[in-house]
Design goal:
Chain lengths: 250, 392
Amino acid sequence: MLKKVTSTLLFLILFSSAFSQDLTAVEIVQKSIDLINGKTNQGETQMTIVRPKYERTIAMKSWSYGSDYFMIYITEPARDKGQVFMKREKDMWNWMPSVSRMIKIPSSMMAQSWMGSDFTNDDLVKMNSLEKDYTQRLLGEEEVGGYPCYQIELIPRPESAVVWGKVVIWIAKGEWYQMKTEFYDEDMEIVNRMESSQITQFGDRKLPAKMVMTPVNKKGQSTVIITRKMEFDVGLESDFFSQQNMKKVR
Amino acid sequence: MGSLIRLRLGLSIFLLGFICSQSSAQYVKEKMRLWGYVKYMNSLFIAQEDSIPILTDNLIHNRLNYTWYLGKHFEFNTSMRNRIFWGEVVKLSSELGNSLEQDLGTWDLSFVWMEGTGYIGHTIFDRLNMTARYGRSEIILGRQRINWGTCLVWNPNDIFNAFSFFDFDYEERPGTDALLYRYYINPVSSVEGVYNFGDSLRGSTISGLVKINKNGYDYQGFLGYQRGFYTAGIGWAGDIKGAGFRGEFSVWEPDASTQGPSQLVGGVDVDYTFPSSLYLHAAYLYNSEGINTSTGDYQGFFLNRELGARTLSPSRHTIFAEVSGQLSPIIRGSLFGMTNPQDASFFWGPMINWSVANNFEVLFNGQFFVGPPNTAYGGYPHILYLRFKYSF
């Protein structure tokens, strides 16, 4: 009986101390995600794929609800304008108005790069579900881009289907901007670095308007994401993310 | 209509396309939208008999899509397909003008506005419709694309439109003159009824479709009547361990006053994308009315048959395979193959698509047919295509 009580107490002490440390890192990451997402948001973004000899730009309007629902309407380039992508929990569709075709996207297609960029479809979708896929640990503090930041290490959970070995993220203290993120492969070699800048007022909050994703070993290559407009807590419901609205949004 | 007036009409349509291409670059929340492309394509026909010389053909192809958003509930859509053909094959095809002039729909929206020895100018409105939306209901009246397919190569469920895989230059596919009513049951499920106008009820197609989503799969089923035949079908699109898995099966049964066979057309479609962008795709099609012998009149199959979901392939069995991938972010390479296992004849074709600039791309496509005469793919000329496309 006594043994049982002490082991329970010991477990509680160990667990709570581990928990409180974890909670800090989790809380910080969560604050940064809440800042980017709000409960719902609506915006316009452009993405430029930079290669040594050329550049390509894709622009889109987007709507999202939590981390499980989003809709993207392509506005540039002209060839793809009007195409819509929608995700509802695990299902994803592509509406192609030129052929009036609704295509169900299989999950293997999500692991390839998003329209030729340095982001995979998964990066874009899973950016919002860090808490589900990673265990998180506070490593320390460091200044990035003039902001004192928390440095947090994210290790994928064994059951998650994440391609990275680990992710390290720098989050501004008090402002909660994700100033820098480093992606490591399974051999813990750095693969990609993402840096944020141009803090700008969007609706009720300030956010970095520019994000640059750079593959570390590929010279002259990067993907630049610019947020042109963004509004938060715009009152979308999950029902907004429907096949009917895929045909209506613009 | 006088030929001069037709010529002027045709040329002004072309000019309109170019002018609008200059002004549609910037956008706000549009009240209307005009977009499309201009393509130039050169085709090289290489006959399998050495005695026939190589023939070349040219095509300038302009597409204009126009949408007018009329308030919250209405939308008007039209698309024009304007083409000028010239070259040696056009010179040899004396019936081309007549067959282009003929509109297969209810309304005659097809116009040959220029014709001479070795050249033809043609315009067809392949979309012309009005959409009304209210709550969860949607009505579309007019020439429209009704797309019931779930697979990527052959669509036995797509009873309103026919499309040939080899006609790669017609991405938008033809439209159907119809009245469609659709009701959205929930965000991912709907029911719809379509009446495709014919000259009589017997000459029409009328059908209802239900679409639902469950456990990561889209499912659909339809029941209908198509020009003397009762028809029904099922289709699905889902995922097996990340691989896309789709299928479509349709049956036709003659009514009491129709002479004709019962028919089953169906197939499955599987694809997988690797993180490297390597894409593998395979498909199989079964046609109960297809020819099932090692030699047969495969090329004559289409002569007395209407192109449609029932004539997707002349052979009983057809197998398709594709390997594609990004050679760079702006160059996509593909290799397609198709075979009739019964006679071992086959088609193969490489395709390279190069995005030269944001709105400009160059495409090369080869279509090679291998097999003895009287097989599914034997005897056709090889064709090489080079296409330049500017989108606006």
